[in-house]
Design goal:
376 residues, Aspartate Aminotransferase, domain 1, Aspartate Aminotransferase, domain 2, 2 domains, 3-stranded antiparallel β-sheet, globular
Length: 376
Amino acid sequence: MAAILDPFRAQLDALAERSRLRRLAPRAGHDFASNDYLGFAHDPVIARAVAEAVARGVPVGSGGSRLLRGNAPEHEALEARAAAIFGSEAALFLANGFTANGAILSALPGPGDLIVADALIHASAHDGMRLSRAAHVLAAHNDAQAFDDAIRQWRAGGGTGRAWIVAETLYSMDGDRAPVAALAEVAARHEAMLVLDEAHATAAHGPGGRGLAAHLEGLPHVVALHTCGKGLGVEGALVTAARPVIELLVNRGRGFVFSTAPSPLMAVAVQAALERMLTAEAQRAALAALVDAAGRHICAPLGLAPPASQILPVVLGDDARTMRVADALRKAGFDVRGIRPPTVPRGTARLRISLTLNVSAETVAALGAALQAALA
């Protein structure tokens, strides 16, 4: 029976030969790998809110899906507060961003519709599109005209359903921002639904940390996704949209319908994190200062353009070299991870440097020196 595992071993060996074998690695060194941009994961105010909830008897587990007995007052309180904060008609709390993207794109677009998604959209969106009843195409990254052209071509070919435009507002591997205003114009021109994933913008960007598309929230054709495990430092995801959209997700979003509800304690944590987000101007300013420091100490010496956000890619291209440099940096005390295909396009393996308030400007400068040495 041992031979039954040979195909799996062969696949692992093939990954290793291409320097693409992934293994879990422990946390070690200065944090340049997490998405805890504002340092909220260890925030005492959020921790105290959870401790107080435990003390008053809020259960650790939900006990079932939200449509069975898993719907807790804490979930409903969070959703009401999130809708008020983001300016939407309603909100829905799900287990994580991956689940939320899958639910949105598999449940909402219908037969005869067309989804036009940015070529660099999250893997979860790709999975959701594969499960969707709608057709889908990819548009060139951050090219609003490509979205417009795709919809026009579909209409010219007889497409009569609804168009759906799907993009991230801040991209997780390149750190660049979407042309949100231009995409909104395309959506208005074609009466399209606009789905904007704020995963890496929520808490870190926008007025009160409400994201880079905060000005669009509340419009009937806009669906926003705010993941909670990145800038908010906790866990889960919030979809904010018009009430009929949220109610349809409750009925047809498989990742919501058939999943055990998130812990009521996590709903408490997320609500506390949202309140912290609203008043975290000092933290956002400190993060912007770290981005400036990275421009001076990392980008300038390497001849790279200044970072567009807290996510700084150093594209090396070769998978093996990328992992060697990442290993050298970890040995020097810096937790920087190498990112390889298929997470990023072939030939663009990179170091993904994530700037968070878990490090100082001095540590950023030290990383810059270590990176120059590792690349020499």
